[in-house]
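*Target chain*
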Amino acid sequence: MIARNAIIQTSQYVFDILQTHRADMRTPARFYSSPSLLKGLMTDNSLEQLVNTATLPGVVEKVLAMPDIHQGYGFPIGGVVATDVSNGVISPGGVGYDINCGIRLLGTQLDAAFIAPFVDTLLAVLYGNCPSGVGKGGVIRLKEKALNQVLERGAEWALKNGYATEEDLVKTEENGSLSRADADMVSPRAKERGKGQMGTLGSGNHFIELDVVQEVFDPIPASRMGLFEGQVVVQIHCGSRGLGHQVCGDYVKRFHKSVRKYGIDLPDRELVCAPVTSPEGDAYLAAMNAAANYAFANRQVLTHQIRRSFEQVLARKTSKFHVYQIYDIAHNMAKIETHTLPSGRARKLCVHRKGATRAFGPGAPGLPAVYRDVGQPVLVPGSMGTTSWVLVGTETAMKETFGSCCHGAGRAMSRNQAKKLVRGTKLREELLKSGINVRPGSLSGLAEEAPIAYKDVNEVVNVVHNVGIAKKVARLSPIGVIKG
């Protein structure tokens, strides 16, 4: 673990570990935190992992971690690491096993008072229409040709097959389709795992959540997103399912050989990597993008099923049952992006965001026209019994964090620790008493995701807001949750 005296507090929420801390560091390490969050950080190896990422070939400026940082595989979750495309590396550990795990926020014209009598019925229908659980299959069984189209076209496949609207794609990061994707770089085993899981939620911390907009902090971006106080909205949190997990595992195994081939010295074998421009690096990027496209399509099919569910329950009760897309962002990705460094030089970088999201500021290329002057929506979910947040990216993020922000609350304890402290049946009862109706995939899985297992999401958001890398727009409060 990193000793407290190795950490320099440079401002109220900014902490640095100097490059001189270890001889093999190529850059300094910076993380954003608060006194209480920092106390929790000293109990795991996440800061040591952050320092380890600063040893990677081609790393630029400084390695970063968001206030939701916690220990992960190789890279800390909450880590943002940029490498120069010309001489740097790409690492599966900097993306994670659930490639393009992300958040989608959907809006409605319904308010909390209207929806209250129908929450239980709506959750039951959503639970039936949106399969969840380990290895759970969906209503769509993809054949080889269709699966390859999903892998190479993402949400465009969903649009062509009636699961999406044009507006959905416009309001999805990268329009829901990454061009540098190649189905041939995805193994037969990964494809087999993905054939039957399209339109499924998965397990663990994945969820579909009914929320109410509790408070609006910035009316201009809120208006652009169609958010208003008392409004019912829906969050989807899931990723690329077994297919993405297999892609990561396949390339971690392959990159153990690449490290030896290219003579890369690493302080931790979980940091296995390959030069971005090498055949191995190019293959992983193509496979990762394919898995990301699968995730975009998966969240899109789930959106279609959510719309069906709202219609099934509410069509005879109101004409306002329509569900529209606000935004969809990824938080486990490596992206090839051009950023202007403090020196003023623009460089093409491979930006790893593991448990971190883009937070592009106003005017950034690729933003939907409706959000271009206010910044990219940044979606920060809570932990089932807590609030969630909608933020917008800033110019400060573009200058200081490669346009990145936190992705959630971040775990404060392991799943095993949570299960020792929490009983799923009691937790469900407590949540119901507080007005949150929960339908879990399993009671043990529910215990793993108990709110006490996570950091305080409000404090995490306060850090990024006060630092200025994202600005508060609205706070959401849960009324119904389907857990994976």
User: Anything to note?
Assistant: The longest helix spans residues 279-314. The mean pLDDT is 95. The chain has 16 helices and 19 strands.
